[in-house]
Amino acid sequence: MGSLRQTSFFSFEEWIHDTEWDDRLQAILDAVPLGPALSALPQPARTGRPETHDRALMLRAYVAKAVEQIPTTEALRARLRRDPVFRWIVGYRGKSDIPSAATFSRIFDQISQCTSLQAVHAQQVETARARQIVSTDEAAYDASDVPAYEKTRRHADAQDPERASWGLKTGPKGQKYRWFGYKLHLAVAAGSLFPLAALTTTAKMHDVNMARPLVTMTTDRDMGQQTAIFDAGYDQATLYQDLQAQGLVPIIPLNRHGGEAPEGRDDLGRPTCSMGYTLTLAGYDATMATQKFRCPHATGHVDCPMGMAWCSSSNYGYVQKIAIADDPREVGRIVRGTAAWDALYELRTSVERAFSYLKEQLNLRTVRVRGRRKVHTHNLFAVIALAAAVLAATV
C-alpha cells in the first residue's frame, strides 16, 4: 500500500482536544462530500411549489447536529438562529435562510428512502484509501445497541424487521443487558477509528447474521482486506467457512459456552498429544493450506516424562498436520495463542472505541425518529461525521 499515514488513536484524540470547536466543525463538514448525496436524492417535483431551500446546506446541518450533539431538529434550528458562528459554518447567512422544521423533516424522510448517505460514506472510504490514511488490510467488526425513541412493547412483533424489538447482549463479565430498539453493525479499519461499513437492524437480529453482509460490503469495495476480527460472540462454524470462502483470515476467540475442549484439542483449538500437552506450531504450508505441529518435548517446550518415543519412533518427534479446510474454527491460517494472533486481536479495540465516540460525542444514542430506515439514517449521519473527523484530523 505504500507509505501509510494512518491516524492513531492518540493523534486523533489530540486533534479533537487541541482544535477550537469552530475550526473543528468547519474541518469536519468540509470532509463530507455532498455531491454523491445530492445525486442520489430524488429530483424536486416540477409541479407545485418550487423547492427554495438548499439541500446541501440541510445535509451539512444534519452532520453538524451530530457533531455538536444537538438532540432534536427544533434544537438545531434554535442553535442556527441564535449562534451566528455556527450558522455561518453550516452555510446559512441569515436567520431567514433557515428552513422550517417541516422542511428539515421532509429532506430527512427523502434521505431515509434512498442511498444518498451510503454514497457519501463510500466516497469517504475511497478518499481515506487514496490518501493512505487508513489500512484496510484488517477490519474489526461488532454491533451495539441503539435504544428506540418509541413506546416499549412487551410483546414486540418479532417478525417485522422494520420495527423496534427487544435485544439482549452479554457483557465482558457475563452480565446481561436488555434494551428495546435497534442495533448498529459496524466495520472499522483496524488500528484506527475510521468506519468502513454500517448496517442497522432491529435489536433481535443476531450479530452473526449481519456479519456476512457487513463483510461483503467491505470486500466488495476491493479494499485488499485480508483479516476479519470479531469477538467471541461471533464464534460460529458457518462464519469461519464464509470468511474462508471470501479469502479472509478470521480472528475470533473460541467460545465453548462453558463446555470443555474436544478430545485432542486445548482451550485455544490447538492439537494436543496423548499426554495432554499442546503441540508446538512448526509452520504453515501455503501449498497444501495446512498447519504443522510437532511434539512439544522434541521442540524443548515441555519435559515429557515419556519422552518423544511415546508418540513416535522418529528422531524428529511426533508430527501432526491439520488442513485448515477441515475445521477452520479450531485451527486457522493464524493460530490462536501465537504473538501474531494476539497482536491482530488487540486491534479489535478499534471498533469498541469507534462505538464509544459515536455514542458519547456524535449523538448515536439520541434517537428522535421511529422505524429502522429513519434510525439507520440517524446512525449514518453519526458514522459520516466520525469518518469526516478522521479525514479532517489527517489533512
TrEMBL record:
It holds the Pfam family DDE_Tnp_1. Residues 304-386 form the Transposase DDE domain. Residues 140-254 form the Transposase IS4-like domain. It comes from the Bacteria. Residues 23-109 form the Transposase InsH N-terminal domain. GO terms for molecular function: DNA binding; transposase activity. InterPro entries: Tnp_DDE_dom, Transposase_11, Transposase_InsH_N. GO terms for biological process: DNA transposition. This is Transposase. The lineage of its organism: Bacteria, Bacillati, Bacillota, Clostridia, Eubacteriales.
